[in-house]
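Ligand-bound model needed. iron/sulfur cluster.
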Amino acid sequence: MTKSKKPRLVIVGNGMAGIRTLEELLKRAPDTYDVTVFGQEPRLNYNRIMLSPILAGEKAYQDIILNDWDWYEANNIRLHAGDPVIGIDQKRGFVFSAAGRKVAYDKLLLATGSEPIVIPVPGHKKNGVITFRDMKDVETMIDGAGRLQHAVVIGGGLLGLEAAYGLSTLGMKVTVLHLAPHLMERQLDTAAGTLLKQELERRGLDIILEADTAEITGDDRVEGVRLKDGRSFPADLVVMAVGIRPNTWLARSHGLATGRGILVDDHMITSNPDILAIGECVEHRGLCYGLVAPIWDMARAAADTLAGSDGKGYQGSAISTKLKVTGVDLFSGGDFSGGKGTEDIVFRDAARGVYKRLVVKENQLIGAVLYGDTGDGPWYFQMIKDGTDITPLRGTMAFGQGFEEGALSDPFKAVADLPADAEICGCNGVCKGTIQTAITEGGLTSLAEVRAHTKASSSCGSCTGLVEKLIGFTLGDGYVADSGPKPLCGCTSLDHGEVRRLIVAKGIKDIPSVFQALEWRTPDGCHTCRPAVNYYLLCAWPGEYQDDARARFINERVHANIQKDGTYSVVPRMWGGVTSAKELRAIADVVDKFNIPTVKVTGGQRIDLLGIKKDDLTAVWADLGAAGMVSGHAYGKSLRTVKTCVGTDWCRFGTQDSTGLGVKLEHATWGSWMPHKFKMAVSGCPRNCAEATIKDFGIVCVDSGYELHVGGNGGIHVRATDLLCKVTTEEEAIEYCMAFIQMYREEAWYLERTAPWIERVGIDHIRDRLTSDSEVRIKLRDRFLLSQKDAQDDPWAARAKGVDAHEYQLLATIG
Ligand SMILES: Cc1cc2nc3c(=O)[nH]c(=O)nc-3n(C[C@H](O)[C@H](O)[C@H](O)COP(=O)(O)OP(=O)(O)OC[C@H]3O[C@@H](n4cnc5c(N)ncnc54)[C@H](O)[C@@H]3O)c2cc1C
Ligand code: SF4
Ligand code: SF4
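Prediction:
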C-alpha cells in the first residue's frame, strides 16, 4: 500500500495528550495512518508539567522536549507547528488551519487542552497581566523578572504557587492573593495548607488569604492590585492562576456535542464516530481532568480505538497531586473532604515538620494528605485506587509502609508490594512493570540508564527515591546506587551545577552575596570555590559582574606564567600562528632589552619569552604593545591558541584557506574566559598537519567544506575529538565554534576541560543542542558575542598603563 492510500489521521493539538496517543498508537499499529499534527504553539511537543521548574531556573526548555524533529521525521509525521486548526468540515472530512491549510482526514483526534481562566475584573486586559499555561508565558515571566520588581500572583493553587516560587527565585518580590482561607484548598486540608503557607513565607513569599480582587490598577500597564476590602499591592506583573477550563471552542462551534468539555465515551469517541477527543479538553462520565495521570489512561484507550481494537476503554481516573516547589514535599490524593461516615487518622510530628492525614471510610482509604514526608504517597494512593481493606493495617498505617508491627521492615518492601501497574513516575506516566521490564530486558543497572530508557524520574524528580528502590529490589546485589554529584568544596554542600543554577535563578551578582544567599559554611570561601564562583558570575552576568582578581590563581592575576624559579614567561598573541618581521623585531628587541634568557616556540605555534623578572613584566608588555601585540592568555582559563597549517595559500593538498579561517576564529574568540584552557586548530586537509583532532575545537577542511571536531585533548589523558558535524561555509564553521564555546562556558564545571565535560554529558547532548535546533545554536552564539563585548580587552595594555601596579612591585627588603 502506498503512503497516500493509508487512512489519514489528523491530530489537533501538539500537546501532551495528542502526542501520547500517537506514541501509544505507534506501539500498537505502526505505519497504519498517514499522520498530520497541527499545533497552535510554534514548538515541538514538550512536557508542560515542567514549565514550573523552568521558571524556577531548574530546567531549560531543551530538557523538557518530549519528541524532537527527528522523532516526527522518523515516524513520517507531518507537523504544522504554529498553525492552529480553525475549522472542521465534518461532512466531507476536512480541517482548515489559520495559515490556510486544508487537510483531509479519515479519523480526527481533538486534543486541544485547556485555556486558563482570566477573572474579568476591571484592568484585566492591561499590559503586564498574564496567565501561566505555556512556554510563551514562562518566557514573558523570565523576561519580566529580569527588569521588574513586584509580582502579584492571583490564585494560591498548584499553578499559582509554582509561578510565585519561580518568580521569587528569579529575584522578584512576590505577593500571592488567594480567595480561600487556606492555600490549595482543593488539594489540602487546613492543617497542611497552614504548614505550606508558613514554609512559603519563610522562603520570602507574601501570602494574603481571603483576598478578593476588585481591580487591577495602572494606566496602560499594570501598577498594582486592589482588593475589595480596600488593601492594595504594588505590581509590575500580575499572573492570573485561578483555574482552567476545557478548550472546547473548535468542537462546539463545529457541531460536536459538548458539556463542560467535549463529550466522549469510554473509547474516547465524540458525538461523531470518526472524531475522537482526549486530554483536558474532554468530559468523560461527567468529569473533566486537569492533570496528566488520566491522560496516560485515555491515550491507551484512544490508541486502541484508532488501532481498531476495542480494549477495555477508559474507566475514569483517581488523581493525586504533588507541588513542584523544590524542598517542599507535599502529596495529596483521593477525597479528603471528610463528611458523613468518614474517619481521620492524623499523624503529626511538629519537630520534623511532618503531617499526614488519612481519610478512611468503611475500612477503605479514600483520601490522603501528606506534608513533609511524601515517600509513602504512592502506597497510599494505590490503596485508594484498589479499594484495599485496611483493617489489618489500621494500627500502623500512619507510620508508612516501611513500618510493620513496630519495627522497620525490609527497605524494599514498599516497592515489592506494589502491583505491576502501579504508577511510579506521575510526570511521565511510567508504571512499575515497565521499569522492571526495562531493567531486566535491557540489562540496566543505574538510575541514569533507567531514566534514559523509560523517562521515569527524568522530570520533576520526586519519584527518584522510589525508582532507586525499585532498581535495588529488581537487581538485588547487582545494584550500586549512583553516587551523585559531589559538593563544590568543603564550604558548601551544593555541587557546581546547583551553585550555577542558583546564581542565575536568584539573580546573585557578587561573591559575598553567593556565600550569604547559598549559606556557605565559611565567610570567605576557599581557594577552590572562590575562582569557580568568580567564573560562574562572570559567565552569568556579562558586562555587569566586576571580575574579582583576588579570586584568581596567580597566573591569571598577574597575566603571565610563573615558572619554577619564580620568574615569569610571556606569550604574545600571534593570530592563527602568523607573524611578521615587525612583530619578530619587537620580540627580539624585548629579548635584548630585558635580558630574557630563553625564547622558545611553543607547541601551539607561538613564541614564549621565558625568564622575565616580575618587576619587568609591565615594561615588557608596554614594548610588545607598542608593536601591536596583545596578551596570548597563555596563563589563562581562556582561549589559548588557534593552530593552523598553511592550507591553500601554500600547500599542494590544501582544500580551504585554513590559515585565514584560523586567524578569523582567533579574532572572534580571544579573551573569552572559560571553565578551563581552550585550544583550537584548523587543518587544510585530512592530512591534519595542525593536529585539529586533539584540540578542544578542531576544524579539518575537506573538499565539500569543513568537518567540525570537539573535545580533543593532547594532555596527560590523550583524547581524540568527536565529530560534531560537517558544514559547508566558513561562516557556519565560525557560528558553530562560538555556539560550542558558549555551551561549554555555560554548562561545564569550572576546571573541567572539554574532553571530560563531553564524556560526562555525552556527545549526543551537545549535538542535540548545536545541530538539531538552529534557534538554540544562534542564541548560544549571540550570548557568546554579548560576553565578548567586554572580554576582548587586552589585560597587558591596561597593566602597562598602571592598572594593579602594586602586583608588579618588589616588596621592600627589610633589614
Ligand atoms: C505550569 C503547569 C504546571 C503543571 N503541573 C502539573 C503537574 O505537576 N502534574 C500534573 O499532572 N499536571 C500538571 N499540569 C497539567 C498538565 O500539563 C496538563 O494536564 C496536560 O498538559 C494536558 O494535556 P493536553 O494535551 O490535554 O493539553 P496541552 O498539553 O495543553 O496541549 C494542548 C495543545 O493543543 C494546542 N491547541 C489548542 N487549540 C488548538 C487548535 N485549534 N489547533 C492546534 N492546536 C491547538 C495548544 O496550543 C496546546 O499546545 C501543569 C500544567 C501547567 C500549565
Ligand atoms: S593539513 Fe593538508 S593542507 Fe594543511 S599543510 Fe597539511 S597537507 Fe597541507
Ligand atoms: S608538559 Fe608539563 S612540564 Fe611541559 S610545559 Fe606542560 S606542564 Fe610543564
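The CA atoms of residues 379 and 417 lie 9 Å apart.
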